[in-house]
Write the structure tokens for this entry.
Amino acid sequence: MRIALGCDHRGRQAIDELVPYLAGIGHEVAELADGDEDGPCDYPDRAWLVADAIRRGEADRGILVCGTGIGMCIAANKVVGVRAALALDELSARLSRSHNDANVLCMSADMLGQTLLKRIVETWMDTPFDGGRHTRRVAKIHQIEAGERGATPTPGSGGQDGR
């Protein structure tokens, strides 16, 4: 799988360890940066590079790391076709893939240790999209993204039976 990675200065160590890890398990890895990789940088710039690689089809998935992961997630989700999710544990990583078909994983360098970061990435990479009822919901996300009324209720989608 082709994976684009990006980070700001606070996520540098995490990405430095994730690149060889992902390459070592057989993925094609590209770290995207636009200048000095060791100095301070603005997280939206790096989020754009990874999200744009997804949008253009140059990467299948993306991974972004900044101090909290929040800024990267917000910025990446502004790019058409990107479904970025913030994961702080393995459960949120798994659900972001199985229910939301997330194509960009955002993580916190400040709140997660390197061991947990790798476990989150492994879980996220190994989890397939469940499809089924989730396909309809992801399609509604695409409708919202296109400026359509994608959030209109679907008959039978409310209540306990529509989970």
User: Anything to note?
Assistant: The chain has a mean pLDDT of 89. The longest helix spans residues 12-24. Strands lie at 2-7, 28-31, 61-66, 84-86, 104-108. The chain is about 40% helix and 15% strand.
